Amino acid sequence: MKEYTFYTVDVFTDKLFGGNPLAVFPAASGLSSTQMQKIAREFNLSETAFILPSQRADATCTVKIFTPGGELLFAGHPTIGSAFVLAITGQVCAKKNSTTIFLEEGIGIVPVKIVFRSGDLPVYAELSAAQMPEYGNQHLPLLDQLAAMLSLNSQDLLQAQAISCGLPFVFVQLSSRESLKKAQLQLELWQQLLADCWASSVYLFYRDGEQIYARMFAPGLGIREDPATGSAATALAGLLCKDYLQSDGTLLWKIEQGMEIDRPSFLQLEADIQGGNITAIRVGGSCVLVTQGIFKIN
């Protein structure tokens, strides 16, 4: 029987019981991928992260990420939460007020900046996307079909597009916050329309200037509704930036997610534009330590 220390943290919040819960194993050497998958199912959170030594000279460590349904090449809140746990356990130390680490994930190296307060207390972490937006060429269902899948009317939907920054999503822009609140995913219609597509996870959002309100459904990953989705936020920049590509500079949005499931989450999204292209995307937020424990496994 081997023992592995784990931590749970709430990500994209500064208050307990908010944000997106995450389990992190900061020293996961010795666990097989099969065992990691079983542990993720046991926790039954959106994701569970396992930290391992990296063989790459340009990486601080390797992070493997599992949902209850399978392994991911990249995910936002496990990346932010893993960096936070590395900091609170002393595996990463502050250099002045911040430090940047480099996490090896399935998508490649993901830089994460950790901001500290009072010397060694991490208060904020911000990842930089390893991949710029990729626009899916899948034939999306008609807006009225997507509306029915979401228990909405066709006039509630403004547009839909499939985009990925390492994990693909169907982004559906809604016409009002009321539409966002009343949306309910019809699983049978989702199975018919999106289950076998390049992008099957559905990210709904309503935009009010620089403020974004969002929800995310990913039944294909075993996630009925996600409280906060950093990987989707990075790809969302690919849609939000389209009207600003003629001007160089940095754009900033604030995202609220998880309100409908009583897990208020707050993400900050930034994108740099230069020469008509998106050159960098950053997503950040705060974390709260919840538990520390021992997992025993044969």
Question: Could you walk me through the main structural features you see in this protein, from its secondary elements to its overall organization?
Answer:
- The protein is an alpha+beta fold.
- It folds into two domains: 2-132 and 285-297, Diaminopimelate Epimerase, Chain A, domain 1; 134-279, Diaminopimelate Epimerase, Chain A, domain 1 (Roll), CATH 3.10.310.10.
- It has six helices and 18 strands.
- It has an 18-stranded mixed beta sheet that branches.
- Strand 16 and strand 17 (277-285) form a beta hairpin.
- Helix 3 (143-149) runs antiparallel to helix 5 (187-193).
- 45% of the residues are buried.
- The model has no long low-confidence stretch (mean pLDDT 95).
CATH architecture of the largest domain: Roll
What is the radius of gyration computed over CA atoms, rounded to a whole number of angstroms?
19 Å
Largest sheet: 18 strands, mixed
- Percent of sequence in beta strands: 35-45%
How many discrete domains? 2
Helix content, binned percent: 10-25%
Number of strands: 18
Distance between the termini: 5 Å
Question: Looking at CATH, which topology of the largest domain would you report?
Answer: Diaminopimelate Epimerase, Chain A, domain 1
CATH homologous superfamily placement of the largest domain: Diaminopimelate Epimerase, Chain A, domain 1
**Uncertain stretches:** none
Roughly what is the average pLDDT, rounded to an integer?
95
| Protein structure class | alpha+beta
Q: How would the global form be characterised?
A: globular
Number of helices: 6
